[in-house]
Design a protein that fits this description.
Layout: E1 2-4, H1 8-19, E2 25-27, E3 34-39, E4 42-47, E5 50-51, E6 63-66, H2 73-83, E7 89-92, E8 111-113, E9 116-118, E10 121-123, E11 129-131, E12 135-140, H3 145-151, E13 157-162, H4 165-176, H5 179-185, H6 194-202, H7 208-222, H8 227-239
Parallel strand pairs: 1-2, 1-6, 2-5, 3-11, 6-7, 7-8, 12-13
Antiparallel strand pairs: 3-4, 9-12, 10-11
Helix pairs in contact: 5-6, 5-8, 7-8
């Protein structure tokens, strides 16, 4: 197994696997000797190193946890090319409802499984990740999801299968779309918008298109008015890296 993108989400999954004796290989942009997840007073150290060169991936693996942001998929494509074969299952841990389509061009015919991530976790200044409550994932009820279900069996990361995964994914997307307003106002609301606000302040690309732009695009395609998105999307695009 491999985790590509050991940030907040990737670290949480890697720690859950490591605790259960299934330590994954780690791949990312920044070299680190280990990952650290903090749960209450406990520290879980996931041994590395985090490999930064795709050439270090010697052969394809059965299961890839893709935990980079949607804006980073193209940059992660060398890892996907090195780690994926037609038999590989790529489990996408990202925001949005386009998780199958976006990484597909970079995967060698492998199966892509989308997810809805319910991780109340945040990055700390020292590089560790703090998990505030239980971690939970929702997957579509398909045969490919069974491999992920087995990999995370008996870990601190609960997995549930949804027969109507599309509805679950859209409900989560609409919750996350609130982050667009937080970016514009620069005001946090609990756990919402922390990452987005930090990205804007650091000048990093924002995920506005896959969380706000998609609402506007799908509304136009189906003839559904989206008046709030029609106002918010151009403003977020102007504040980020998009047109306008």
């Amino acid at each position: 197994m491999a985790v590509v993108g050991p940030g907040v989400i990737g670290t949480t999954v890697a720690a859950a696997l490591h605790e259960a004796g299934r330590t994954p290989h780690l791949y990312g942009r920044r070299a680190r000797e280990h990952l650290e997840l903090r749960v209450e007073e406990r520290r879980i150290l996931v041994p590395g190193p985090v490999q930064t060169d795709p050439a270090q991936a010697k052969e394809p693996v059965d299961l890839v946890f893709l935990a980079v942001k949607a804006t980073q998929i193209e940059a992660a494509s060398p890892w996907l090319a090195a780690l994926c074969s037609p038999q590989t299952v790529v489990y996408v841990l990202q925001n949005g409802v386009e998780q199958r389509a976006m990484p597909a061009p970079y995967i060698a015919g492998g199966q892509v499984i989308p997810s809805v991530v319910w991780f109340p976790a945040e990055a700390k200044p020292d590089g560790s990740v703090r998990l505030r409550r239980d971690a939970r994932l929702t997957l579509p009820d398909t045969s490919g999801s069974r491999l992920v279900l087995e990999a995370l069996r008996a870990t601190r990361c609960a997995v549930e299968l949804a027969t109507d995964f599309t509805s679950v994914a859209w409900r989560k997307l609409l919750q996350n779309a609130v982050a667009g307003l937080i970016v514009l106002t620069r005001r946090r609301s609990g756990m919402y918008g922390r990452t987005d606000l930090a990205d804007r302040e650091a000048g990093r690309a924002l995920e506005w298109d896959i969380r706000n732009g998609i609402v506007q695009r799908r509304g136009q395609a189906h003839g559904i008015p989206t008046p709030i998105s029609d106002v918010v999307v151009p403003l977020i695009a102007a504040a980020s890296d998009g047109p306008g």
